[in-house]
């Protein structure tokens, strides 16, 4: 497959608003032995991209200075040790920056096949939130069917993804959000119960909703004062 030597990308010219995003021409990235090269069809937009554009989120040392943490597209080159994928495969992937470009190199293990029910544009919005929720709630938290999951920030990207995945796998889902409207939105996404944390004590509410047991798994993107309160809201052997 013939590949160009250069590509178009979107770079951050200086910290600021959306107008600092500028088109640039740069070399197509090389492909390491355990990587694949993706011709990007779509890239997701996440809060870290916005913070990076504003100058508040510098990319990790050694990674691309371009924004963009998730993409979808076609595999157009393979590293010498990449065996899972073949040329022409449609994938979505979590990348270490560089997604706002025509091509991006990514570790082969950070890519997933595009579900048949989704377009490539839709699939670009999967990796950042689904990888995060799957790793934290299911791989580390070991959420099981019938258990209770408490999700803080229920209307965030992570929150709405957690609601849907947990419901799909048979968990009971309680969320917190900051307005009644957001609570209603969480219920529409599939949450069983929603707590307005500005007007209700989520610890007391969770205990009441679980007949005093508490939540088996808690997904917290807030931190701070919530940490100690999460212990109070957790069940025995909660995670």
From TrEMBL:
Keywords: NADP, Oxidoreductase
CDD domains given in the database record: p53_inducible_oxidoreductase (cd05276)
GO terms, molecular function: NADPH binding; oxidoreductase activity, acting on NAD(P)H
Tagged with keyword NADP: yes
Domain Enoyl reductase (ER): 16-236
Domain of life: Eukaryota
Keyword Oxidoreductase belongs to the record: yes
Pfam families reported for this sequence: ADH_N, ADH_zinc_N
Entry-linked SMART domains: PKS_ER
Coiled coil segments of this chain: none
InterPro entries the record matches: ADH-like_C (IPR013149), ADH-like_N (IPR013154), ER (IPR020843), GroES-like_sf (IPR011032), NAD(P)-bd_dom_sf (IPR036291), Quinone_OxRdtase_PIG3 (IPR014189)
NCBIfam families listed in its UniProt record: quinone_pig3 (TIGR02824)
Protein name listed in UniProt: Enoyl reductase (ER) domain-containing protein
Source organism per UniProt: Darwinula stevensoni
